[in-house]
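Researcher: Good morning. I'm working through a list of sequences from a screen, and I'd like to move beyond sequence-only analysis. For each chain I'm collecting a predicted structure so we can compare shapes side by side. This is the next one on the list. No need for commentary yet; just the structure.
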Amino acid sequence: MAGFPVSDASVLIALERIRRQRLLPKLFGKVLITPKVREEVFGKRRLPRWVIVKQVCQDIVKEVARQTGLKPEKGETEAIALAYRLQTILLIDDRKGRKAAQKLGVPVMGTLKLLLEAKRKGILRQVKPLLVALEQTGRYLDEQLRRWVLEEAGEA
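Model: Good morning. C-alpha cells for this chain:
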C-alpha cells in the first residue's frame, strides 16, 4: 500500500456538508479523485490544492465492474478501480461500493472512521457535534453505529 488515498464522492460530499473537507489534507496531505468524482463533487468550481485528479484506464474500470457487478459508468466504480490499480486506501461511504472494494482487497475508510482518525491524531477535539451535524444534513446513523463511534471516540 502506498501513496495518497483515492476518494469517492460520498466522503467528500459528507465532509463538505459539515464544512470539514479540510480534514483530508491534514490527515493525508493529498487526495486523489477521478474525473467523474471531480464532476460529481466540484462541478466547474476550482479544486482545492490538496485534490489531484487522476485518470484511470477504462480497461481496469471495466474489469472492476465485471468482478464486482457495479456499473462501469459510475464515479464510484472509477474510484474503486483507481484505488485497486494504485493499491491504496479508498475513502467511501456507500455500503455496496465498500463491499465491492473489499472484495478486490482494497482497504476502505468511511466518513465516520475518518472523523475518529482525526480525533485520534488530535486534529479534532470532539466527534459528537460532527455526528449531529451529519444527521442534520440528512445522513442516517443507526443507534448501534452511533454508539460505537462515540465509544471509540471516548465520548460515550
